[in-house]
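Fill in residues.
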């Protein structure tokens, strides 16, 4: 074998060697910039740990071959300033987790660093971030929740559980406006009277919102998905219970905490899949060649203790469909 061929062979083998192993060998830290929900609450902390745990299983471990610069969506300076700061040191990868503003911020800050998203509340194809689910193109790929379809299904499930309750209050904000529009369409098709409760200017005034709930004599409450709702969830659950309102959420974690029903994807699994995509990109895969993955399994969870506490009974048809039941 000639020397040039030998050098080419060695170079090709090095390129194929997983980045995690090369980083361990050279002492170089792989850098990830991360934009996501605030880590001031148990749920996002647990999901972030699940993300890091999955990366660890795939060969990337903080303080060994990986460093993560995490920026919260609700930091006072805003996600766009944070994204610019994330890009400045040229990380190997950027992860955008949550509503559109997370992806929007990092895309505006960088046109060349690979980006993996876990998209919540929007469809990246419809917004123009990727060319198609099968062939995203460019430097972006990831995992998406079809939240608009979930919002419609949540309304349908509430109607099936409580067909006599026709007045539905819906809690949403600017991050979840598309979900609200989908829920409103479903409510109208089911001849429900919908009461919009749009929260403005965080931190949100839930006392004022629930005064509107009482004034409108709402009979059920749909809480749509927004990262800015996470700090308020204990109070939402407390006030809904005090008003004896059946509640519907997207995240099953709210059901042991006192919510009545939830319908949505398993967030932990989706965060694991986001980590899988991150590892693939770090090991040399091109985002353009990684199809965007959609959640395909959705879980219905119910809490019979809450049902008893607020004086309602869930029909057998709903209980038989439930994937998780707390008794």
């Amino acid at each position: 074998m000639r020397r040039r061929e030998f050098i080419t062979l060695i170079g090709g083998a090095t390129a194929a060697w997983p980045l995690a192993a090369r980083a361990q060998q050279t002492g170089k830290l792989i850098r990830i910039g991360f934009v996501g929900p605030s880590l001031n609450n148990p749920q996002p902390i647990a999901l972030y740990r699940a993300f890091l745990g999955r990366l660890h299983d795939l060969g990337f471990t903080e303080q060994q071959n990986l460093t993560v610069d995490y920026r919260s969506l609700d930091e006072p300076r805003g996600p766009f300033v944070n994204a610019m700061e994330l890009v400045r040191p040229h990380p190997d990868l950027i992860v955008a987790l949550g509503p559109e503003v997370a992806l929007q911020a990092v895309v505006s800050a960088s046109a060349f660093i690979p980006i993996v998203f876990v998209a919540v509340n929007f469809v990246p194809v419809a917004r123009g971030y990727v060319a198609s689910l099968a062939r995203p193109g460019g430097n972006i790929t990831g995992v998406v929740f079809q939240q608009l379809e979930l919002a419609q299904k949540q309304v349908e499930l509430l109607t099936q559980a409580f067909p006599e309750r026709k007045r539905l209050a819906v809690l949403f904000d600017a991050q979840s406006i598309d979900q609200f529009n989908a829920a409103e369409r479903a409510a109208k098709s089911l001849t429900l009277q919908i009461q919009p409760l749009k929260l403005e200017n965080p931190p949100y005034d839930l006392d004022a919102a629930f005064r509107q709930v009482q004034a409108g004599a709402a009979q059920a409450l749909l809480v749509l998905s927004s990262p800015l709702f996470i700090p308020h969830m204990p109070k939402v659950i407390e006030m809904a219970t005090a008003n004896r309102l059946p509640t519907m959420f997207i995240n099953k974690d709210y059901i042991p905490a006192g919510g009545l029903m939830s319908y949505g994807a398993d967030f932990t699994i989706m965060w694991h899949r986001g980590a899988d995509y991150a590892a693939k990109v770090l090991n040399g895969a091109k985002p353009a060649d990684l199809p965007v993955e959609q959640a395909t399994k959705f879980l219905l969870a119910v809490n019979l203790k809450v049902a008893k506490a607020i004086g309602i009974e869930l029909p057998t048809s709903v209980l038989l469909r439930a994937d998780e039941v707390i008794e």
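The first helix runs from residue 3 to 16.
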